[in-house]
Amino acid sequence: MSPEAEMLSRLLPITEAAKQTPYTAAFLRQLARTSKLQATKIGRDWLITHPALQNFLTQPAARHEQALLSLRECAEGAR
Predict the structure, then answer these.
(1) Which terminus has fewer CB within 10 Å in the chain: N or C?
(2) 52, 39 in Cβ contact below 8 A?
(3) Alpha-carbon gap, residue 63 to 59, rounded angstroms
(4) How do the residues of the chain divide into helix, strand and coil, expressed in percent and rounded to 5?
(5) How confident is the model over 6-29, as pLDDT tens digits?
């Protein structure tokens, strides 16, 4: 198998990835468009690897912590 074919075989369409998560495919595509989810667009389709999906799913605490910090900074700046 060529390296390109092997790489493509490891890619999962976002619609299939969504079935393995609590998120919708539309939400995952939005995250991919804004670079918050490591994914690749080929033609009209967004594709993701299993490791990238697992990384995203296991990192919510860090993302929430960062969002809370930002909100606190905004609140303090508004005072």
Answers:
(1) C
(2) yes
(3) 7
(4) 65, 15, 25
(5) 555 689 999 999 999 999 999 999
